[in-house]
Design goal:
With 507 residues, this protein is α+β, with helices and mostly antiparallel strands. Helix content is 39%, strand content 20%. It has 17 helices and 24 strands. A six-stranded mixed β-sheet has the order 3-2-1-5-14-13, with helices on both faces. The chain has a six-stranded mixed β-sheet with strand order 19-16-15-22-23-24, with helices on both faces. It starts with 7 loop residues before the first strand and ends with a helix.
Length: 507
């Protein structure tokens, strides 16, 4: 270990809003970060969200080149690069890896008018087990199916269906290959076996994508290849640099907060809000809804997702604080939490604002409003409602894994606020913590890279050396008692009571 202490790793975190290059040493210290915000998303029609491949590649080139400009000495010590990307962002490429169309974002909500037909044995099976509606939904919302039906001229020319991370890796190395831990989306992938589905698998029947369009798979922590000579020059590397497989942004984030065992959970307060644990036993939190493959070779990440997550905070800012300057907004939001009492004066928020996988008809709801409420109470209710939804997820995961969750590492934009962290601790009734860096996705990806370099033998070894709790927030027993009453007596009953009304809101 000592003779390798000067080795550095660059992690590329390609999220929804932008891309970052983060430099880490083998002790988990964040040495430098460069970033670029994405501005090239566009919508040809309502609910569409696409972006050109060059938006992502040019962003990668910029942040890496900027890192060399700002940190020339440290840049020369980089021995490996790894990529963690947003999930389920897809396009199709030709035999040379060149995209045939722009990427379709996970935020894109286009749907086919009807599902692709299932063969009769599966159609009968789905009817017998009451799964027809869910199977139809997965088929209609599969973006690959949309390309196949709506753009057949492109589909027939396609050689591979790829994720955003697959595309970036192919640009870096010349190989169309992907980490098993990065396969997360509407593709026929057996997450339990971490292999592509066999022809007879149910998932392959629902997601009708030709087998020859699948890319090759590699384990996390394995070297994919070296940067190509052309790309090395473009990025400014003078020495050979390995590209090492890691995982998705959420999988790496879970690793980056030290959630390697099922009693420690990872909560991400990002555009989506997610809750994950890592377990070596495959479990399905919802029937037929697979756990994601973890970065560890033997692990899985059961996940609960609140689709709109901290997008709701952006919505709130746009609609209630549009007169505020950016620098003032988040301090003002923290002040709103300080100015209001737990329970938001009786306002309860249900954060199902659309596209929830297991509440497909749901809408967002705020109940309990009176003339005494103002925008401060609404903001608190949004944060508390999100925490209540995550608490329901905690309880569901515990029921499936049969392991109590005792502590929770929190990351994402919302974790920067001490006030939000305390609300989470009080509602979860568990200690929550932040680690030494906000770049937890980059940290987790770097851990995989250091294992790939041989600095650490396992991800557990890397976690011990590289992850440190920086701030811990403990629940207040009296406040938790109040929240528990609200959660049991109101929040848990809201969805069931409102569901019939949601079904009538087909506007």
């Amino acid at each position: 270990m000592e003779e390798k202490i000067d080795q550095l790793v660059m992690a590329i975190d390609c999220g929804t809003g932008g891309i970052r290059a983060i430099l880490f040493d083998a002790r988990g210290n964040e040495l430098a970060t460069t970033k670029k915000v994405f501005t090239g998303y566009y919508s040809q029609r309502e609910n569409f969200k696409e972006a050109a491949p060059e938006m992502f590649w040019d962003g990668l080139v910029f942040v890496v080149s900027q890192m060399k400009k700002e940190q020339p000495v440290e840049f020369m010590k980089i021995e490996a690069l790894t990529i963690a990307c947003q999930r389920d962002v897809i396009t199709v490429v030709d035999k040379k890896g060149k995209p045939l169309r722009d990427f379709i974002s996970w935020l894109d909500r286009r749907e086919l008018e009807k599902p692709l037909p299932f063969s009769w044995p599966y159609a009968l099976l789905f009817k017998l087990i009451g799964y027809t509606e869910a199977a139809n939904s997965f088929s209609q919302t599969c973006h690959a199916h949309w390309i196949k039906v709506k753009e057949p001229d492109i589909w027939v020319k396609a050689d591979k269906l790829v994720f955003l991370s697959t595309y970036l890796i192919s640009r870096l190395t010349g190989r169309i290959v992907e980490s098993r831990s990065s396969v997360a989306g509407h593709v026929p992938f057996d997450t339990k076996k971490k292999e592509w589905c066999k022809k007879a698998d149910v998932k392959a029947a629902i997601l009708n994508i030709e087998a020859d369009m699948r890319f090759d798979l590699i384990d996390s922590c394995q070297t994919i290849g070296l940067l190509s000579e052309k790309v090395s020059k473009e990025l400014g590397f003078e020495n050979p640099c390995q590209v090492i497989a890691s995982g998705t942004d959420k999988g790496c984030e879970t690793l980056g907060v030290g959630a390697l065992t099922p009693e420690i959970a990872s909560v991400s307060l990002g555009t989506q809000a997610t809750l994950e644990v890592t377990t070596n036993r495959y479990v399905e939190i919802y029937p037929f809804y697979p756990s994601f493959p973890a970065v560890s070779k033997e692990g899985y990440n059961p996940e609960v997702t609140i689709y709109h997550g901290f997008w709701m905070v952006d919505w709130y800012i746009d609609n209630f604080l549009c007169d505020q300057k950016d620098a003032q907004v988040f301090s003002l939001l923290d002040q709103f939490l300080k100015d209001t009492n737990p329970g938001a004066g009786g306002i309860i928020h249900q954060p199902y604002w659309g596209r929830e996988a297991f509440h497909p008809e749901a809408r967002g709801a705020l109940i309990g409003m009176t003339e005494g409420h103002d925008r401060r109470h609404i903001y608190r209710a949004i944060i508390e409602g999100l925490a209540f939804a995550l608490l329901a997820g905690i309880e569901r995961i515990e029921k499936k894994t049969k392991v109590p969750i005792t502590e929770i590492g929190i990351s994402g934009g919302g974790s920067a606020s001490d006030e939000i962290m305390q609300v989470m601790a009080n509602i979860f009734n568990r200690q929550v913590y932040r680690v030494q860096t906000r770049e937890t996705t980059g940290l987790g990806a770097s851990m995989a890279a250091f294992v790939g370099l041989g600095v650490y033998q396992t991800l557990t070894d890397a976690s011990v050396a590289m992850v440190r709790k920086k701030e811990i927030f403990y629940p207040d027993a009296n406040i938790n008692a109040l929240y528990g009453k609200i959660y049991r007596e109101v929040y848990q009953k809201m969805y069931g009571r409102l569901k019939p009304l949601f079904k009538s809101l087909k506007i």
